[in-house]
Design a protein that fits this description.
The chain has 92 residues and is of the alpha+beta class. It contains two helices and seven strands; from the N terminus they run ββααβββββ. Pfam families: ThiS.
């Protein structure tokens, strides 16, 4: 079993159109690095800066919990978890 990443439409260009990809890691940061290894470019759309942190207008959830309240990139993940990335959308 692996950790699943639900990919929003705007990021599917990095996953070959796939809605769901899998990866591994003990923390959200390690998981994102692992997924980026298979789908280069996806990490820079989710993470920025030094030290790395989530982009301001990207919401990330692990099992429906907002990671901004569970440790951010240090949030622990394990096999069977589901990670959802929701970029903010603006417009009128």
């Amino acid at each position: 079993m692996a950790i699943e990443l639900r990919v929003p439409t705007i990021l599917r260009t990095f996953t070959g159109g796939e809605k769901l990809v899998t990866g591994a890691g003990e923390t959200l940061a390690a998981f994102i690095d692992n997924v980026d290894g298979s789908h280069p470019g996806i990490k820079e759309r989710i993470v920025e800066g030094e030290p790395e942190e989530l982009r301001r207008f990207v919401n990330v959830y692990v099992n429906d919990e907002d990671v901004r309240f569970t440790g951010g990139l240090a949030t622990g993940v394990k096999d069977g978890d589901v990670v959802v990335v929701l970029p903010a959308v603006a417009g009128g």
